[in-house]
């Protein structure tokens, strides 16, 4: 395994165990089986490493969103949005503690925002991708003309994020079946607005 990936995986384990504030680069290097200097060969700082780990936590959702627009006109609108809901629920649930820890460190939050701006990224891009997909389906006549694509995206992703936040806050573990049932309830409501 490439050392950078090994360091990132070790950082993820340590961050999820200790939290951002209590994690040190020394602990990460020890967990990765490398020197602290080797860590700095791949990452500028603990914050840089943290942001790398956080981006990796949303890989299912980002992968789903990257292919979403090409699904316009294929399968049903609901089944395409189900893919988004399942990926969002999975990634939000697993990354919530890291997402929330960003707000406890003003410097990291500022650098995270700056990085998003320089890469033309950000959490709003997920909503934009879903809205663009819904607008594409609208043009194909598979979504009502009066429907608001951005509102549908916000309702879907916002509901998934809020649900993951609540589950994490309450310390509740969800089975895949429970997550699927929750996604179904959200999609029932979103699809009522679209069809």
From TrEMBL:
Sorted UniProt keywords: DNA-binding, Transcription, Transcription regulation
Residues in the DNA-binding region annotation: 24-43
Domain HTH tetR-type: 1-61
Keyword Ribonucleoprotein in record: no
InterPro entries assigned to the protein according to its UniProt record, in alphabetical order: Homeodomain-like_sf, HTH-type_TetR-like_transc_reg, HTH_TetR, Tet_transcr_reg_TetR-rel_C_sf, TetR_C_Proteobacteria
Keyword Transcription regulation: yes
Pfam families: TetR_C_7, TetR_N
Superkingdom, natural source: Bacteria
A molecular function (GO) term: transcription cis-regulatory region binding
PANTHER family: HTH-TYPE TRANSCRIPTIONAL REGULATOR RUTR, MYCOFACTOCIN BIOSYNTHESIS TRANSCRIPTIONAL REGULATOR MFTR-RELATED
Official protein name in the record: TetR/AcrR family transcriptional regulator
Organism, as annotated: Cohnella zeiphila
